[in-house]
Amino acid sequence: MTETHTGGAAAESTSHGFQTEARQLLRLMIHSLYSNREIFLRELISNASDAIDKLRFRALADASLVGDDTDYAITLETDAAAATLTIADNGIGMSRQELIDHLGTIARSGTAEFIARLSGEEKRDAALIGQFGVGFYSAFIVADEVAVFSRAAGSDEGWCWRSRAEDTFTIEPAEGLARGTRVVLSLKPDALEFADDWRLRGVVRRYSDHIAVPVCMRKAAPADNDAGVDQAAPEWETVNAAKALWTRSRSEVGDDEYREFYRHISHDFGDPLVWSHNRVEGKLEYTSLLYVPRTAPFELWNRDAPRGLKLYVQRVFIMDEAEQFLPLYLRFVKGVVDSNDLPLNVSREILQQDDRVTTIRNALTKRVLALLQSTADKAAESTATNDAAAQGTPSETAGDYATFWDAFGNVLKEGVGEDVSNREALVKLFRFSTTRQPERAGRVSLDTYIDRMVEGQDRIYYLVADSWEAARQSPHLEIFRERGIEVLLLHERIDEWMMGNLQNYREKSFQDIARADLVLPGESAPKASDDVTEPLAERIAAALADRVEKVRPSRRLKDSPACLVLAEFDPGPQMRRIMEATGQPLPDSKPQFEYNPEHALIQRLDAEPDEDQFRELALVLLDQATLAGGGTLTDPAAYVTRVNHLLLKMLAS
Ligand code: ADP
Questions:
Q1: Residue 22: what pLDDT?
Q2: Distance between CA 45 and CA 204 in Å, rounded?
Q3: CATH 3.40.50.2000 for domain 246-429
Q4: In Å, what is the CA distance from 421 to each residue of 375, 424, 509?
C-alpha cells in the first residue's frame, strides 16, 4: 500500500492505495453482483450490528467506553435531493489505522488464489464471491463515492475515509463525530431507488429483520401534510423486528428468516442446506442454531481459516469463531450458541477447560450428526418414492445429501480419527463409490452395501486407488466381478488413512482386496502352511528375486495374467504418495506377485525353455502388473525396450 501526505502531519488528508487484492475484488464484485445489488444494505447493516455487538461486549469490562449513549441503534437516512443514503451505528467505531487496515486491505489468507479462480463470467463469479463474503465493498455496487465517518469508542479523534472505488482512498480528520460509524453513500444515478424510504423499508425487512439491534428510520410524513413533520426533531421508528432470531421460538420463525440469518452470520451469499434450532433446558441452559452450508468455502482446507460458532452469553455477543463448541471435522458448520450459564467475561482459555463447554460440544456434535442423518434419510426416502413412482428426476431432498457429501464428505471422514465415540454414527453417514455403481457420482452407504452382501459374505471389501477410473480397472476386482460381490472403490486422498482407523462396521470387518490375506466369502483365513510351492512360482521367484517378496498362483485373477499384492502392513498407493510428497522414507518392502495359471501368457511363460528369455518375459509381466494396479515404473525405459524387443521378434516370426 502507498501513502501520500498532502499535508505535513498524519492529521492532514492522506491518500492511500488499495491493496492489490482488495482492488481486484472490488472491481469484480461491482461487476458480478450488479443484478443483485440490494444486498449491499444487508452487508452494511450486518457490519453495523457487529460493531454494536463488539462494543457491548467491551463495555462489560469498561463501561466508560459507552458513556451516556447506551441506546444502541442503527439508523438509516435518505436524502433524495442529494442522492445519498446514510447508514449509521453507535458501535465500536474505527481508529485511523483501523480504517486503513479494515477498509483498504483484505487480510484473509488465500485471497490471491481465490481471485485467480474468478473468471469474469458473471453468474459463476457471483456465486464464488458470495462464498468469500462480500462485505463492505458491496457499497460500491450502488455508490459512486463512499464516505465513512468514524470515531472509535474511548477516543475523541474522528476520521473520514473516502473513496470512489478507483485505486485509492483518502483519510482525513473529521470534527464533531458521535461515537461509532456513519457510512454515507453517494448513489449512482441508476440506484436512486435506495434513496426512497419505502423501498428501503422493504429491503430492511427482507434482509435484516432478525438483527437484534433496532434499525431505525424517520417516521414517514403524512402524505397530505409535509409541514406536519418537524424537520428539526425527526421522529424515528424501528423498522425491523429487532429481536435476536435464535431467541424466538421455532414456530415463529419462517424459513426465509432462517436463511437470511444464515447469510448474516456466515457471510455466505447462498442458502444453507439444512439447519437445526434448539433450546436446551435443565442443568445447563443454552440455545443453539446450527447451519450446514450448501457449498464449501474457498478456504475449507486452510487450517487457519475462520471456523467455529458465534458465542453469546445471555444474549450478549461474546466472540466470533468460538472453536471449542464443535470438533474440527465439523468445521463447516456455521451458527450461534447462546449460553445462560457461562460467565460474561469468559475467554478462549476458559472455554478450553470448562466442563460445561465440553458438555455442550458433545451435545452439539450429536445434534449435527443427527441433522445430517435425517437429511440422508430424507434423501433415501425420496429416492425410494421416486423409484416407485418411476419419476425421472430426483426430488430436491434427494439431491441435498449428495450435495452435502460432495462438498464436505472428505472433511467428515477426518472424524474417524478425531471422534472415536461417534464413529459408528459418522460411518453411517459416509458414502462410497462401488463396483455396482456405473456412474462416478453414484454412491451408497455401508448400510446399503451390507443389505446387498452375497450369501456367506461377512466382510466389507474395498480397494484403494489414486482415482475412480484406476480403481474400476484394477485386476484385483476380477474374481469379485465373477462372483457378483460388490467392492467399495476408495479413490479420495484421505481414504486409505480413514480405513486405517476403521476396523469394522456393524460387526463386519473391512478387507482391502489388494492385500495378500484376502479371504473370499465361504473361505477361512489362509494359513502359511496353505502356501503350495508350484514349480512355476519358484521359477518366477528366481527370475524376479530382487523385485518381489513372494510369488504364488492367484485366485483373484480371471482376465489378467498377473497382479501385485501388498503385505498386511505395507503402505498402499495413497499412503506411498503422501509419504513421498512429505519426504518420509518409504519402507523397504517388496510386493508379492500373483499370476493367473489359466492365462495364455502365463502358460507360454511356463513353456519357455530359455532362462534369459523367461526372465525378460517375467519382467514385462511384473511391470505390467505394476501399471495395471495404478503404480509407476521405476525404470519405464527398460520396460519399453523389453516390449519393443518382443514385438520385433513377433514381427520377424
Ligand atoms: P467482514 O465484515 O466480513 O469482516 P467487511 O469488508 O464487511 O468484512 O468489513 C471489514 C472490517 O471493517 C470489519 O471486519 C470491521 O472490522 C470493519 N468495519 C466495517 N464496518 C464497520 C462498522 N460499521 N463499524 C466498525 N467496524 C466496521
A1: 87
A2: 9
A3: no
A4: 21, 8, 18
